Amino acid sequence: MIHTLDQLRALYPPPGERAVRKELTHLDAHCRHFITLSPFLVVASSNAQGQHDASPRGGAPGFVQVSDAHTLYVPDASGNNRLDTLTNLLETGRVALLFLIPGVDETLRVNGRACLRDEPEVLSRFQDAARPPKVVIEVQVEQAYLHCAKALMRAELWNPELQRERSELPTLGQMLKDQLQLSEEPESQEAMVARYRETL
User: Fold this and answer.
1) Which residues form the Pyridoxamine 5'-phosphate oxidase N-terminal domain (predicted)?
2) What is the rounded CA–CA span in Å between residue 197 and residue 195?
3) Which CATH superfamily is domain 5-155 in?
4) N or C: which end of the chain has fewer CB within 10 A?
5) How far apart are CA 114 and CA 73, in angstroms?
């Protein structure tokens, strides 16, 4: 078992110069362009007790807005109302973002400080959305860097021949029925999708 950094580092060569130097303290033109093309990101956060959470967020490409080289805004869309991410950000103010673009194997990682904004001047940035957010996550960028393509290449994430049929899994309704030991009949996949579409 690995217990020390020395033990860990003994197993790996040192990082290459480019891997170290590519880390920026701001969003340059390439990072900003990447964000405008991204319809999906994962927001990672932790609470004050160190419990972690990773939450998917999606929208039309560019739904995350870049204000300047050090600031971006993530609108909070309607979800399950657990508010795990938002609660974590209130407690620690720390956030990590991973942006993806369909068909592109590179990803963009952004780390920084976050706060929750509900002022009209901030919310008005998203007034054209089908469902304007109640809260916007403001991220002050501390680290930004493009991540190499290896992970997505290994996964062949965008290969249409590897896409699975939804029927290979039980419906979400069935899985929740089993997990929660519910007695009622589970919601069908079609009914769930239709219900979701009403609140997108």
Assistant:
1) 28-148
2) 6
3) Electron Transport, Fmn-binding Protein; Chain A (2.30.110.10)
4) N
5) 10
Cβ-Cβ contacts under 8 Å for 125 (sequence gap 6 or more): 65, 73, 136
Rounded CA separation 37/33 (Å): 7
Q: What is the pLDDT along the chain (200 residues), one digit of tens a residue?
A: 999 999 999 999 999 998 889 999 999 999 999 999 999 999 999 999 999 999 999 999 999 999 999 999 999 988 889 999 999 999 999 999 999 999 999 999 999 999 999 999 999 999 877 789 999 999 999 999 999 999 999 999 999 999 999 999 999 999 999 999 999 999 899 998 898 888 87
What is this structure's pTM? 0.93
